[in-house]
Amino acid sequence: MNLHAIDTGFFKLDGGAMFGVVPKSIWQKTNPADENNLCSWAMRCLLVEDGNKLVLIDNGLGDKQDAKFFSHYYLHGEASLMTSLNQEGFSADDITDMFLTHLHFDHCGGGVKRVKDTLTLTFPSATYWSNEDHWQWATQPNPREKASFLTENILPMESSGQLKFIKEKEGRSSPFDFMDLFYASGHTDKMMIPKIKYKNHTICFMADLLPSVGHIPLPYVMGYDTRPLITLEEKAAFLNEAADNQYILFLEHDPVNECCTVKRTEKGVRLDKTFALKEIL
Fold first, then answer.
1. pLDDT tens sequence across 37-60
2. pLDDT in the model for residue 169
3. What proportion of the chain, given as a percentage, has pLDDT over 70?
4. Mean of the per-residue pLDDT values of the chain
5. Cα separation of 61 and 64, whole Å?
6. Which residues contact 20 (CB under 8 A, 6 or more apart)?
7. What are phi and psi of 202, to 5 degrees?
8. Arithmetic mean of pLDDT, 96-118
9. Does the pLDDT at position 223 exceed 70?
């Protein structure tokens, strides 16, 4: 098995929204903001190469939205989904499975592209994976999250016939032998956190349960989370498990760090080490 970090570029979000009740005087030490109080965030995906399977976990923002949309999010950086895949020696046609942790636009927007006036799947040979509970949550959105669930990102998956739902079984199930799943519902309903067995390690793709190393302390919960108190419980359980089992946390949104480990301290679970995915032995 091989793992590849797939960078799809950076975007900007309000620092206060990203850190919730934590004051700027504290969070800006790890994530400095610009003059508009915006911080840069990565949209880092993970490609799993396992036998005849090529599984992409999340796919970034995409490029099919209009100028007004992109003016809100300041997409920047040289990397893109396709250039990063090509640099690893792959094309869109090679992807066999498109695994979506959840359906917010910055996680699934790259999975659908616009060709002239037609929306079509970016990965024509891939099975697209979600789960039924989250799909219903996304296609019948509450007013708080409606702006994050864009129909042009979601409905083409269903109409293509390439969408499949993962069946939750005792909280953990997966269509892949190398992956277990942790379901988290604080950020959005039934977000899936993959736990991948790799080189005697467990690599956890953290999605929005832990956007960056700056979010490790428990109170550092995003204002975007629909159920912040549940996020607190889920983070506590997961980070304790990660510290005790020496999990490697792959960070989707951290603008600097690809991976980290955590450790228990007198103040709770805290950052241990940061490193690149390719440094894992």
1. 999 999 999 999 999 999 999 999
2. 74
3. 99
4. 96
5. 9
6. 219, 220, 221, 222, 223, 225, 228
7. -115, 115
8. 96
9. yes
Q: Give the span between the Cα atoms of 37 and 124, in whole angstroms.
A: 39
- Residue given tokens 């700027």 in the structure block: 24
| Token pair listed for 17 | 């929204």
Which H or E run includes 68?
Answer: helix 67-73
CA distance readout (Å), 147 to 118, 132, 237: 22, 20, 29
- Grouping H, G, I as helix, E, B as strand and the rest as coil, residue 247 is coil
Q: Which residues of 27-63 are buried (b: 16+ CB within 10 A; e: fewer)?
A: beebbebeeeebbbbbbbbbbbbbeeebbbbbbbbbb
pLDDT band for 174, please (50, 70, 90 cuts): confident
Q: Does residue 168 carry a pLDDT above 90?
A: no
User: Rounded CA gap, 85 and 275, in Å?
Assistant: 21
Taking the C-alpha atoms of residue 50 and residue 68, their distance in angstroms, rounded to an integer, is: 39
Question: In the block, which residue shows the tokens 């269903």?
Answer: 158
Residues in the chain: 281
Q: What's the average model confidence in pLDDT over 199-204?
A: 95
pTM listed for this prediction: 0.96
Q: Which two tokens stand for residue 184?
A: 């988290």
Kind and range of the H or E run holding 2: strand 2-14
